[in-house]
Structure of Acetyl-coenzyme A synthetase:
Amino acid sequence: MSEKIYDVPPEWATRAYLDDHGYKTKYEASVRDPETFWGEEGKRIDWFEPYTKVKNTSFAPGAVSIKWFEDGVTNVAWNCIDRHLDTRGDQVAIIWEGDDPSESRHITYKELHDEVCRFANVLRNRNVEKGDRVTIYMPMIPEAAYAMLACARLGAIHSVVFGGFSPDSIAGRIVDCGSRVIITADEGLRGGRKVPLKANVDAAIAKVPADTVDHVIVVRRTGGAVDMTPGRDVWYDEAAALVTHECPATPMNAEDPLFILYTSGSTGSPKGVLHTTGGYLVFASMTHQYVFDYHEGDVYWCTADIGWVTGHSYIVYGPLANGATTVMFEGVPSYPSNGRFWEVIDKHKVNIFYTAPTAIRALMQSGDEPVKKTSRASLRLLGSVGEPINPEAWEWYHRVVGEERCPVVDTWWQTETGGILITPLPGATRLKPGSATRPFFGVIPQVVDAEGNIQEGACEGNLVIADSWPGQMRTVYGDHERFMQTYFSTYPNKYFTGDGCRRDADGYYWITGRVDDVINVSGHRMGTAEVESALVAHPKVSEAAVVGYPHDIKGQGIYAYVTLMSGVEPTEELRKELVTWVRREIGPIASPDLLQFAPSLPKTRSGKIMRRILRKIAEDEFGNLGDTSTLADPTVVDDLISHRQNKK
Ligand code: WTA
C-alpha cells in the first residue's frame, strides 16, 4: 500500500472548476438536498418540455424503482449535436485516428449532424421506430458513433456488442433484446489484422430463430469480400446515398430507454443493463466536465472501445453533450509500435487522456524510451478506469507519461452506474496512488460487513451505495426481478456493487476488486459461470470450475480446472482445443490463460465445489488453504496442487 500523497499542482488550483473547499461544499449540498441539487444540475442539458419532478427513487425490497426528471422531455442526440450547431457548428466533434497511423479524419459538429441524420433516415426506412432495439457490432470508426446517435435520435434502443465477441455471444444478445436490425461493418482493423465482423454476424444470425433479423446494414471499412444476403443485407453507403441529411429528433421522455449494454455477472447469462435518457445524460455530462475538468477547446481522448460502457459515456455521450472534441481510436496501443498512444497525443495535441491500467502495465514493460521519444507537451490530465491500478503503474503513468505535472484521476464506476461514482477531482483532491479517493457529487458510498452492518471510519468490507444517482441503471432489460435480486437483495435498501473496498482515515476509498464470481481480465468483466458453461458444452468435458488469479499485465487471468469425461486422455492437444473452444464460444477475452486437468474437484459432502480452495491454488497460496476438513475427499487437494499450471 502506498503512503505517498500528491498535492494538487499549483497551476491546477487556479484553473480547475473546484478546489478542495469547493468540492466539499458542493458535495455536502448534493447529499443534503438531492432534489434541489439535481433540479439545478438537470438544466445542463436542453429539454423540449421541462421537468417538474426531479427524484423519485426507491431501493425498497421488492419495489425498487428509479426515476429521475420523470416528466421532462428531451432527446439525447439533440443534446449531443443540434444544440451546439449555432455556437460550434464548425468545431471538430470527433477526431478519428485509424489503425494505420497515416489515416485520420476530423468531423465537425455540422458534419456530425448530417451524418447522424442520414444514418437515422436509413434506419427509419427500415421501419426502425421509437422503442425498437438495434444491435450494433462495429469497429472503432466514426460510423459506430453515428449509428448510436442515430438510434438515440429516433428513440430506438441500441445494444452495442463489443467487436471481440463471438457469433454465439452476439446471437444470445440479439435474441435477448429481440433486435430486428443489426449494424455492422465488412471487417474491422486492429493492429494491422482484420476482424471478420460481417461473417460473425452471419454466423450469429444462423444461430437465432429464422425471421428474427430483418435487416443487416453493412458499413464498408476494409473493402474485404463478404457475403450479402439479398433482401436482408444492405451496404450503408448505398442506402445513405438515397436519403437526406435532415431528420427530426424524436421527443423522448426522460425515462424512455436509451441503450442496453450486456454485462457479465456472477451467475447466468449476461444481463442487459438498461439506461434511460435524461438522468443518464445529465450524469455523463456532469462527470465528464468535473472529473476531467473539461474546458472549452480541450482535446479529450478516451481509449476505450464503444463496445464497453466507458466508450458509451466517455467517448460519445458525455463529451458530445458538453460540446467537446473527442478522439476515437481504431487501433491498439502496440501497433505499429509501443509508442502509438504517445504519438497520437502529439499528433492531435491531446490535453486529457483516459485509459486502462492493463494498457499502462503493458506499455510500462517496454520501458520509458517509447514515451520519452514524444513530447506530450499538450497533456494536462491523465485518467484510469476499469480495474484497480497498482501503485507502481500509477507512479509510472504519473512520472513518465505525465512528467509529474498531470494529476491522475483513478475513476471507479461500473456499467450499472452509467458514469463515474468515486474519483478525484484534479483541482480539489490530493492523490494517493491506488486510491479512487472520494465520492462524486450525489453519491453516498458505504462500507458494510457480510451482515450488512455499516462500518464507520477507517474500515474494510463490501462497497454499497446508499441512495440513487441520476446515471444509475433502471432495470435488467426484460427482467426487473433479476435486477432487484442481483443488486438490492444482498443488503436491503442499498445498491450492492459487487466490489470490496477499504476506506482509510482520510475517508479515501481503495477498491480491492470483485467479491463475487466475476473476474476482471484487462478491465473486462467475465463471469466465471459463463466460462464454465462454455467448457462443459464441449463433448469431452464433464465438469469445470473457473477462478481468477493475479496476472502481471491483465490484472487477473482466467484459471480453469477441467474434469474430463471418463476414458478421455488429458493431452496437450486437448488443452489447446479447449482454450480455442472457449474463444469460439464467447470471444478472445474469455480464453483461459491456464487450464488444468483435474481428475476431480474439491467438493463439500453436499456436492458444492469449494471455490475458495481453487482460488488459493490458482493464486499459488498453497500454505493458506484454510479449513479443508469439510471436503468429501481431502486428497483431491494434493493432486490439484501437484498439477498446478505455471503462470505464463
Ligand atoms: C472494476 C467499467 C478499481 C470494479 C467502468 C467494477 C475498478 C468493475 C475501477 C466494473 C477502478 C472499474 N478501480 N476497480 N478505478 N473501475 N473497476 O462494468 O470491479 O466494465 O465493479 O465498468 O470494474 O466494470 P465495468
User: Anything to note?
Assistant: The longest helix spans residues 109-124. The pocket of WTA is lined by residues 263, 308-310, 385-388, 410-415, 436, 497-499, 511, 513-514, 520, 525 (CB under 6 Å).
